Amino acid sequence: MAPMRADTDNGLPLYKDKPFAPRSSTRKQRQLRRTVLWTVGAVAAVVMIVRAIGGGGYSGPGLRAGRKKAAQESWADRQAAVRQAFEDSWRSYEETAWGMDVYRPVSKTSRNMAPEGMGWIIVDALDTMLIMNLTEPAERARTWIAQNLTYDQDYEVNTFETTIRMLGGLLSAHYLSGLDEYLDKATDLGNRLLGAFDSPTGVPYASVNLRTGKGRRSMDIGGASSTAEAATVQLELKYLTKLTGETLFWEKAEKVFEVLDGNHAPHGLVPIYVSPETGQFAGRTIRLGSRGDSYYEYELKQYLQTGRRETVYKAMYDESMAGVHKKLVRKSKPRGLTFIAELDNGIDGATSPKMDHLVCFLAGNLALGATEGATLELAQRTRWTARQAADMALAKELMHTCVQMYDQTATGLAPEIAWFNEGDGAEDMVIKSQDAHNLQRPETVESLFVLWRITRDPIYREWGWRIFQAFQKYARLEDGSYTSLNNVNVLPPDIRDNMESFWLAETLKYLYLLFDDDTSVLPLDAVVFNTEGHPFPRFDMGTRFKTGWQRSAAA
Ligand code: DMJ
Questions:
Q1: Is any ligand 1 atom within 6 A of the Cβ of residue 532?
Q2: Which fold is adopted by the domain 151-310?
Q3: What angle do CA 182, 187, 190 make, to 5 degrees?
Q4: Is the CB of 442 under 6 A from ligand 1?
Q5: CA 532 to ligand 1 centroid distance, Å
Q6: Catalytic site positions
Q7: 29/173 Cα distance (integer angstroms)
Q8: What distance in Å separates the CA atoms of residue 32 and residue 520, rounded to the nearest whole number?
Q9: From the CB of 502, is ligand 1 less than 6 Å away?
């Protein structure tokens, strides 16, 4: 029997820049539901505003004791509201789609991607339940994984998505719970993914068959893999090596960076495709959005993960961020919002003023890189260079822009893509209809969480609360679960029937941590979050593990 193909179209939630295609069949039904929801949402919003005004909302630092207590209670209330949103989303999924990979909360339909399911939503959401102390649903998830989850299926999965969500989810569940059964599953999965790296260069193929271990080239330009996808499996495989002692995972992972770095991309800015056959970049498009984003994230996080011993990754990261400052930072008109432009025609081509919401990860990443996880106050006292200051300043400016991507829409939710105005227009950003959907993405709240932890400036919590309220108001269904939107500028909201697993794995997790008054939970100087929001401990390499490559000089 021919192997089943990876789920690349029609369904969600795989590829990041999948084109948007609205469905029209149930329009009337949706309209009715929207009206009801909108009214309920409006009432809820009024209640919340009244509560915020009368309930001693946060008024900034330097409060007197009595006020401070009220402020703390307020953040606890907000955190509880996020936990409730998770519980409601989860209950809806458990009741109507338990065990399925794709969940459509409006129609209450679901389906699997692999023949026997991949545990896609359960595994991705599990560590959030552990962090939120939701012990009963976490136990049901544990039982489902133990009794139902098998990776021995004749099915091709996307190498990157399976690594960051499934391998990452299992590893962080092991880290947080201490249960070896998650590590056993992770090891089985890790072994099955290794076949993806059997290319002439070691750059992984886009897909791999879980049973046969055979990799398959992508359908994209000449079979090239996405650069971000090839370069975003390292934290997971290295942690797996640390836990199992099996160095093969580590070697496969780091080889990818050796090959990528061997291209000597000018300014450390890489094209978004790479050939597994030649190891060379393909095409001329350079961006920090889809297919480029987490390459830069994992440059930094590999350095942090292994106790800041692998300086090769820090050198790459510094070079890339210098490239971002020099080549990609732009200001919009008329308000001067800082955004990160794209290069459609190579490093010396003209910039394009398009920015994906995905780029908003960079605000947090820059702040994390500047202090390496310490608070800003501590980092500034210890050592503080002009370079760190510049990265921190850019982090704050970009954070503001990303929040504006929410604030400037009718729903208060961000579109997938914004186009910034550099000419005479009256608006700083334009949202095209094909880019106007919201997939419950995490990048902005992820960065708000990192900036809050690093700066301790409460503005980042306030911004996060505003975003969460917009989700409550416009993306919440009658049963309390949450869905995506087709267009963030349409009222009443035009909902899309899909709940992304990263809503549970990332968006709600980061909001929950953002509102946690206890900043010692998962401290940024002791853990790294993988690109899917799964926390792993930083670890000491000891004498057993080492970086197996060095940067080569450009010819
Ligand atoms: C997630 O799967 C990860 O955060 C990935 O790095 C980017 N895309 C989604 C969320 O938007």
A1: yes
A2: Glycosyltransferase (1.50.10)
A3: 120
A4: yes
A5: 6
A6: 416
A7: 39
A8: 45
A9: yes
164-202 as b/e: b if 16+ CB within 10 A: bbbbbbbbbbbbbeeeeebbebbbbbbbbbbbbbebebb
Identify the sign of the CA torsion 409, 412, 413, 418: positive
Rounded distance, CA 403 to CA 400, Å? 5
For the chain, first and last CA: distance in Å? Answer: 48
| pLDDT above 80 for 6 | no
Ligand 1 center–CA 465 separation, angstroms:
21
* Per-residue confidence (pLDDT) for residue 73, from 0 to 100: 61
DSSP-derived letter for residue 279 is -
- Tokens at residue 265, please? 């991309």
| 54 CB-contact burial (10 Å; exposed 0-12 / middle 13-18 / buried 19+) | exposed
What residue segments make up the domains of the chain, in order of their start? 151-310
- Per 3-state DSSP, what percentage of the chain is helix, strand, and coil (rounded to 5)? 50, 10, 40
* Ligand 1 binding pocket mutation candidate from 14, 15, 16 (most atoms within 8 A of CB): 16
Is there an atom of ligand 1 within 6 Å of 160 CB?
Answer: no
Residue 13 in contact with ligand 1 by CB distance below 6 A: no
The predicted model scores a pTM of: 0.89
How far is the centre of ligand 1, averaged over its atoms, from the C-alpha of 421 (Å)?
A: 26
User: Over the stretch 91-126, which tens digit does the pLDDT of each residue have?
Assistant: 999 999 999 999 999 999 999 999 999 999 999 999
Nearest to 100 by CA among 121, 115, 127, 86: 121
Residue nearest to atom 1 of ligand 1 (CA): 532
* Interatomic CA distance for residues 544 and 485, integer angstroms: 49
Ligand 1 in reach of 357 Cβ (< 6 A)? no
* 56-89 confidence digits (pLDDT tens): 222 222 222 334 444 446 999 999 999 999 999 9
For ligand 1, what atom is nearest to the CA of residue 165? 2
Do 297 and 531 form a contact (C-beta atoms < 8 A)?
A: yes
Q: From residue 161, how far is each of 18, 93, 352, 502 by CA, in Å?
A: 14, 21, 28, 11
Residues 289 and 355 sit within 8 Å (Cβ to Cβ)? yes
CA nearest ligand 1 atom 11, residue: 441
The burial class, CB within 10 Å (0-12 / 13-18 / 19+), for 515 is buried
pLDDT, tens digit (0-9, with 9 covering 90-100), for 463-505: 999 999 999 999 999 999 999 999 999 999 999 999 999 999 9
- State if residue 291 touches ligand 1 by the CB under 6 angstroms criterion: no
Residue 460: Cβ within 10 Å count: 25
Phi, psi of 338 (to 5 degrees): -80, 130
pLDDT at 219: 87
Q: What SS3 class is residue 274?
A: strand
Asked if 442 contacts 55 with a C-beta cutoff of 8 angstroms, the reply is no
Nearest to 102 by CA among 537, 522, 498: 498
| Residue having the nearest C-alpha atom to atom 4 of ligand 1 | 532
Query: Tokens standing for 247?
Result: 């160095």
Whether the CB-CB separation of 337 and 429 falls below 8 Å is answered with yes
Contact status, residue 227 vs residue 292, Cβ threshold 8 Å: yes
